[in-house]
Amino acid sequence: MFESVEASSQRALQPLLHDVVFCVAAPAFAASSRDGQLRGIRAEGFYDHDRRLLHTLCLLLDEREPEPIGVQPLGPHQVRFTAVHRYPRDRTDDPTLIVERIRTAGSGETISLRNIGTAERRLHVQLAAASDLADIADVKRGHSRPVLRCAAARASLAWRSPSGRARITVVTGPRPETSGGPEGGTMTWPLVVLRPGESWQVELAVTGRAVPTPPGHPVAPTTPAPWNDPVVAGDRRLMGLVRRGLGDLRALRLADPQRTADTGPEDQFIAAGCPWYLTLFGRDSIWSARMMLPLGTDLARGTLWALARRQGRVHDHYREEAPGRILHELRPAEAQHGHGLFLPAYYYGSVDATPLFVTLLVEAWHWGLSDEDVTALLPHAQRAMDWVLKSSSRDEDGLLRYYPRAGGLRHQSWKDSDDAVRDAEGRHIEPPLALCEVQGYAYEAAVGLASLLNSRGQREAAQGLLAWADSLRKRFADSFWIPTRNGPASRYVAIAVGQGLTPVSGPASNMGQLLSTGILDPDGPGDIAAWLADDKLNSGWGLRSRSAAVPGFNPLSYHGGSVWTHDTAIAIQGLCATGRHEEASRLVDGLLDAATYFSYRMPELYAGDARTEDSPAPLAYPAACRPQGWSAASGVAVLSALLGLKPDVTSRTLHVRPVPQWPMTVRGLVLAGQRLTVEVDREGEARVSGLPQGWRVSHYS
Predict the structure, then answer these.
(1) CA-closest candidate to residue 214, choices 266, 271, 163
(2) What pairing do the DSSP bridges indicate for beta strands 45-48 and 38-39?
(3) Contact by Cβ (8 Å): 487, 423
(4) Is residue 324 within 8 Å of residue 312, measured between CB atoms?
(5) Mapping DSSP to helix (H, G, I), strand (E, B) and coil, where does residue 40 land?
(6) CA gap 46, 59 in Å, rounded
(7) Cβ count within 10 A of residue 118
(8) Sign of dihedral through CA atoms 603, 607, 610, 612?
(9) What is the distance of C-alpha 443 from the center of its chain?
(10) Lowest mean pLDDT among 3-12, 165-174, 247-256, 645-654
């Protein structure tokens, strides 16, 4: 009686991911429990282009599941699961039959049986397989779909629905007996005989696609990663974070099939994250490319072109498209995401991607993006800036706000969950809102684009942007600072202001992203640094998204107290850029220590619990993407921040401002196509070699 009432009132829940094993080769990935079995639960399965091809692939030996003993990643795209099959009548407790499954994202898996004992083994081997061909949005909201009827053929099983098709095939190895039906299919090898020392192996291919294939949708890249791998000598934690992050970024690469010339370079970008966001996301892909600029400009180039080709052209209320606006996310089809959120395949509902697009072009220009690409992309940046200026003029106060449509994203910056914006009393604050970091993005974009336009002789347009930026800076100073008597500094920056310039109270991490933008007054960096170093925001493992001192703080809330890897890295960049080295070093140490507990594969976010003797390790956020684009790129962002690198193409000057007490040598940084070596000693003195012709180094304090 009670159980049925409770069940009837329950809604589907998002699957947890903290103990899921992923292998990724975008746009494909595979997910399973640590024993390698796919049982049709949670997010388990083989996926491609946001479609689950298989959700069940369960191995049975003599009607029993093998006993797992280990899982080993063989790279971001591949993982090996090892198990044993034991015999109760054996006179030894030692395993005598080893079972290995090597799973490869976008391909399939190889199953091997190895007899390491002294007796002959006769095995009945069976694989149970099933599919629902579910869309990733359905999986994410915990919505179950019925199992599809399986059609059996010689050495293969197949499934089909109006939205997709899938097949599992024996590529090499003994041919199985196959059977299919409404509950799934099986592959059976009735008698496998293994003498001592012998092995048995089958290779399975898992294939499928959406029907029809989405036109213009990103595809797997066919050329190498568009960056240079640096050689880093220094702190072992930083070395591990950079190395693992670059590996994960390779797995998260996608390519734009709409490139303008078949003979030109492939336009690659970084997908937002696995499993939920394995596609082009404007904001996320831009930040990943920005963080990777010290390793070359080709990733930025590909990201800019992929977004420029999809830049808003018309006013479309449903897609929230507008001329000049940069895409928020791209999906194979429109989808129901739960909680009343229904999004089209092309969705433009973000307020920050558009100014960030402009800044990515400007920064890529400074790092050496070709003049041809800069010139070709400049009109797209100008149209993006026009959208920023027009949107900010919607209200008399001239701030850049978002006005979401019903059924779209309620909050439209990186903190985009429904309860992302709360005040100091814990109350939800509804849009329209002007977020603090978005004003910083807009200011930075305007000043940067003005510099680029000046270099192209467009001085009148540049002066207009600088005048607008100066006005925005003054409006920001008047509207966003909140005085306080209870805190490490006498004021802090409001996370947002509503209409009527009412500030949203309560310290949050957003202010950390302002440090590098230039919008702050001279005392602003010092005040913000004090808040970021305070233990109410600095958890000891990284920067909390919301202060632990205010009501509504939750260390396991998506945006209300958890630690986001990229957010911490951006704050570190800002602290280093403004000379707040002590505060930066505290955050760096916490982030790098956390990385050791996550095997250097930094998740999208993790719990914001305080680092204490009773909490000696960071706790996973159970539904976080892993790997995740801007988290994987954060190692390079921290590396560059500690070196204090800032190029200025107009004066051909590389400004260097290393953080003391972080000695290191980095070979393979790239400026204007030339590889650099930067050496920093314990006193923070830097030596740079390999500069491009005509460039010089400026050491500043």
Answers:
(1) 163
(2) unpaired
(3) no
(4) yes
(5) coil
(6) 15
(7) 11
(8) negative
(9) 25
(10) 3-12
Partners of 84 in the β-ladder: 67, 98
pLDDT at position 384, please? Answer: 98
Q: Tell me, what amino acid is at 338?
A: G
Q: Phi/psi class of residue 197: alpha, beta or left (left: φ > 0; alpha: ψ in -120 to 50)?
A: left
Q: Which residues are 101's β-sheet partners? A: 81, 111
676/687 Cα distance (integer angstroms): 10
* SS3 call for 328: coil
Cα(685)–Cα(250) distance, integer angstroms? 33
CA 312 to CA 103: how far, in whole Å?
Answer: 40
Task: Indicate if the pLDDT at residue 436 is higher than 80.
Answer: yes
Helix axes 236-251, 634-643, angle to 10 degrees: 140
For 74, 355, 615, the CA distances from 382, given in Å and listed in that order, are 45, 10, 49
Look over the chain and give the mean of its residue pLDDT values, rounded to a whole number: 95
Q: Rounded to an integer, what distance in angstroms lies between the CA atom of residue 435 and that of residue 501?
A: 11
Instruction: Please report, for the chain, how many H helices and E strands are present, in that order.
Output: 14, 36
| Token pair for 30 | 């595979």
Residue from 333, 493, 508 nearest 411 by CA: 508
Q: Could you tell me the maximum CA-CA distance found in the chain, to the nearest angstrom? A: 89
Secondary structure of residue 452 in the 3-state scheme: helix
CA 52 to chain centroid, in Å, comes to 20
Q: Do 555 and 540 meet the contact criterion of CB atoms below 8 Å apart?
A: no
Question: In what helix (H) or strand (E) does residue 476 lie, and over which residues does it extend?
Answer: helix 459-479
Distances (CA, A) of 607 to 425, 536, 659, 669: 22, 14, 28, 33
> Rounded to a whole number, what is the distance in angstroms from the first to the last CA of the chain?
71
Going from the C-alpha of 541 to that of each of 292, 354, 620, 637, 639, the distances in angstroms are 23, 31, 12, 17, 17
Beta-strand pair 653-656/696-699: parallel
Amino acid letter, residue 150: C
Measured from the Cβ of residue 597, the count of other Cβ atoms closer than 10 Å reads 14
Q: Indicate the residue type of 335.
A: A
Query: For 131-171, how does the pLDDT look when each residue is reduced to its tens digit (9 = 90+)?
Result: 999 999 999 999 888 999 999 999 999 999 998 999 999 99
Which residue in 649, 208, 597, 193 sits closest to 454, CA to CA? 649
